[in-house]
């Protein structure tokens, strides 16, 4: 057993804390993107993910994701090996001299943010109780098995696929689930011609800033030691995101859209997602190109939802699934052998089979996550129901589901959440 390396252990502890910060940051980001009458519900869906996933990860999640090393490519046959994180109390270490507790916490934070990402697709209309059940089922049935496939010795890792920090396991995975769940829940009332503009752009900027800050722990922490690869991952995260912001604003300008803070913040997320699977595997020039492409394709992908007719409220599909797929495939193009330990992308003399395997892996995860999320959603729809009533949706999901309001807004001359609500007046005030 390796001796404890206090420097590496401190880095993983810090990274885990940074990744946890991303979920409250996401709550602010998503909350600002919704209407004023939905901000509390959106934040609650993110925050409750922390509670759900922390307990589920401790009881069974990590056991499934880590497995027992029996070599099964799909599902470890002995998931009891890490049940309840019992081995953490042995105070052992893993490779790099990092404590088992620090590594477990780091993995837990990844699972939390992955589940929370999905919530943005069903803003304004999904029952809170149904979300709690969905999140619990999805982390066990999808996230944990996919983490095993990608990082725990499963079939994707056996293919030689590289996913540095979660383009396939986190972002493409969550984006596909978001699409499946959004299709089950259905469109918001008045979706095609209603006013669903973000109600608070300063909240969006604060949330994006916290996500960007936390993402350094997400990506650089995935080196698992405080070394040169961690430094490269942090640098690549920065330059890819910067490139994506500029590319997003450029494509908006070409389309006749004025430069906006919403576009810039969307570019931040697109760049962060796209570089995640490649952060410690490419050169800074490769990272810039990955970010540029993400900033160009994601706004176009978001526009497809109107043509295809699905209501992904906060563009989880167009940002996380699309950028996650692109970043995962881009590893097959830009991986630099000197930092990957010998595996090179096509642009650096690598084999096309590596690019093919990267593509197969991300497509398989997207398909699996989409189908399982769809099935979970349909089961909930025909049992407990997944959607609030039309009256509750028009009046505002915050009051209906939580008895709270994000702001004290005057309605018919009254103040507060208990004031009588007239649907038409509520739309005028809270839209």
TrEMBL record:
It is a multi-pass membrane protein. It comes from the Bacteria. GO terms for cellular component: plasma membrane. The keyword Lipoprotein does not apply. Its main location: membrane. Keywords: Ammonia transport, Membrane, Transmembrane, Transmembrane helix, Transport. It is found in: Cell membrane; Membrane. InterPro entries: Ammonium/urea_transptr, Ammonium_transpt, Ammonium_transpt_CS, NH4_transpt_AmtB-like_dom, RhesusRHD. Signal peptide: none annotated. Residues 10-407 form the Ammonium transporter AmtB-like domain. It comes from Glycomyces paridis. The chain crosses the membrane at residues 12-30, 42-60, 100-123, 130-152, 164-185, 197-216, 228-249, 261-279, 285-304, 316-336, 356-380. This is Ammonium transporter. One of its GO terms (molecular function) is ammonium channel activity. Belongs to the ammonia transporter channel (TC 1.A.11.2) family.
């Amino acid at each position: 057993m390796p001796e404890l390396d206090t420097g590496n252990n401190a880095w993983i502890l810090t990274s885990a804390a940074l990744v946890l910060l991303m979920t409250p940051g996401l709550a602010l980001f998503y909350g600002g993107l919704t209407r004023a009458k939905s901000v509390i519900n959106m934040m609650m869906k993110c925050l409750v993910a922390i509670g759900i996933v922390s307990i589920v990860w401790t009881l069974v999640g990590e056991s499934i994701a880590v497995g027992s090393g029996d070599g099964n490519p799909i599902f470890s046959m002995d998931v009891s090996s890490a049940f309840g994180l019992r081995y953490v109390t042995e105070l052992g270490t893993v490779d790099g001299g990092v404590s088992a507790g620090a590594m477990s916490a780091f993995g837990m934070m990844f699972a939390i943010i992955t589940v929370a990402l999905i919530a943005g697709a069903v803003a304004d209309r999904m029952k809170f109780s149904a979300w709690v059940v969905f999140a619990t089922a999805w982390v066990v049935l999808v996230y944990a098995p996919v983490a095993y496939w990608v990082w725990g010795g499963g079939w994707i890792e056996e293919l030689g696929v590289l996913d540095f920090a979660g383009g396939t396991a986190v972002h493409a995975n969550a984006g596909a689930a978001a699409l499946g769940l959004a299709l089950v829940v259905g469109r918001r009332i008045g979706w095609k011609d209603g006013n669903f503009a973000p109600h608070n752009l300063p909240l969006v900027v604060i949330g994006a800033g916290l996500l960007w800050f936390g993402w350094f722990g997400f990506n650089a922490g995935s080196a698992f030691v405080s070394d040169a690869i961690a430094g490269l991952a942090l640098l690549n995260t920065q330059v890819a995101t910067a490139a994506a912001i500029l590319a997003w604003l450029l494509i908006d300008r070409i389309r006749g859209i004025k430069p906006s803070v919403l576009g810039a913040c969307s570019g931040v997320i697109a760049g962060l997602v796209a570089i995640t699977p490649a952060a410690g595997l490419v050169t800074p020039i490769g990272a810039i190109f990955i970010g540029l492409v993400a900033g160009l394709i994601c706004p176009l992908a978001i526009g497809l939802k109107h043509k295809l007719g699905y209501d992904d409220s906060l563009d989880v599909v167009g940002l996380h699934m699309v950028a996650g797929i692109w970043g995962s495939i881009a590893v097959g193009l830009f991986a630099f052998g000197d930092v990957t330990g010998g595996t090179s992308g096509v642009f650096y003399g690598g084999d096309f089979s590596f690019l093919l395997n990267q593509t197969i892996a991300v497509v398989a995860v997207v398909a699996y996550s989409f189908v399982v999320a769809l099935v979970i959603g349909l089961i909930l729809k025909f049992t407990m129901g997944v959607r609030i009533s039309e009256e509750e949706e028009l009046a505002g999901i915050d009051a209906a589901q939580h008895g709270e309001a994000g702001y004290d807004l005057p309605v018919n001359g009254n103040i507060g959440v208990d004031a009588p609500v007239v649907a038409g007046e509520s739309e005028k005030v809270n839209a």
